[in-house]
Amino acid sequence: MSKHSMTDMTQGDPRKLILMFSVPLLIGNVFQQLYNMVDSIVVGNYVGKIALAAVGSCFPIIFLLSSLFMGLGMGASIMISQFYGAKELQNVTDTANTIYTAMMIGAIPLSILGILVSGPILSLTQVPADTFGSAQLYMNIVFLGMIGNIGYNVNAGILQGLGDSKTPLIFLVISCIINIVLDLTFVINFDMGVAGVALATIIAQAVSWFVGIYYINHKYDFLTIHPFKFRFHKELFLKAMKLGVPSGIQNAVFSIGTLAIQSLVNSGGSAFMAGFNGANKLDTFAFMPIESFSRAVTTYVGQNMGAGRLDRVKKGVRESLILSISIGVSLGIFVILTGRYMMMMFSRDPAVIDAGMAYLNRVLPFYAMLATLFILNGVMRGAGESLIPMFSSILSLWLARVPAAYILNHFFGKEATFFCYMIGWIVGLSITIYFYKRGDWQRRAAGIVGEKPPTQPEMEAE
Known about the structure:
Mean pLDDT: 82
Structural class: mainly alpha
Strand content: under 5%
Low-confidence stretches: 450-462
Distance between the termini: 33 Å
Shape: globular
Order of helices and strands: HHHHHHHHHHHHHHHHH
Largest sheet: none
Number of helices: 17
Number of strands: 0
Helix content: over 70%
Radius of gyration: 21 Å
């Protein structure tokens, strides 16, 4: 068994383990965002603001329809981290192959569904007529190659569950470089517009997926993936569904809420759409450390719960909160201060830049709440408690963020709409903190690795 890239997070200093595991994730997130930003930068500068609006309006829809598979990948990653922590390597192998079989069977129907619903969803979200055709073309091409994106994320989930966050970064860098080269080639040299950007995306993702399969098969003697040789374990699949479906539902419902807000933005016209979509890319850069620390603490908690090391869990939570809040808030301030200049990467149109700054100035100042929310939800997911993060996300979105967006838009104007994010985070954080303090999540790992539930003294050990 190759151990050089795996990390046993049940031993050693929690802060160092979480930080070192997070760094490759963070760099990977940077490249993932560059991956998306290149599409927007290329079409914004070489095609126009309408093309920029078209590409940006598609991401929530694509995310919506791929949410179930992303949830299954999350479930598999949690199971693998706990099985690896318990040293149940055969279950690691069986879980990986089961999720791969589900992915291969479901990818084609997902692609077909995406193509069929692209037009109706774009109409429902009030995409303007001058943007509609380009947006639908981009979506249809991306959905044709969706299996590459799903495959990369499944590979990344498997490796991260084993404590390897470095190798998925390498795959992502390869994909990002290919995407940049093909974007520039297809758009500038061949004048393919948004179709060229979409084609570059699916080719780059497919290459990254195949490289990932090759790596896993050659580096881990206990784990071999054959995408077209189906191996399915019903019990493991149901456990992955139990863990992953709440996350998938959360992502799907979140995407629907995002589309509801996107509809408000779309009603503001192409320039406002373009500014919002450009600012979203910058916002994501500030959010990256928060997401990376959240994913790191999920693996950390999963391995330590699987190994029965509950004494280490709360120490890791404290360190993750300190890292996430301090770095996330600092980056948020930096993006606010430099946002107007960075918005010029996407467009020099003053209306586009003003719309982007309206978003950044109303979202980034409240990042401490977002950081706390993501870390605590990551802790509960790592322990196998995925329902609470799901309910926290859904309730904060539909009871707070979406209604607040429409109320703010109606009474105070389109720029005030963006305060809805802060309102949603307050509600979500209140729910998450309540259930985190109750501590029921500390008993969840027993249902995955087959151990007896920890006793109260064990749960309280520090």
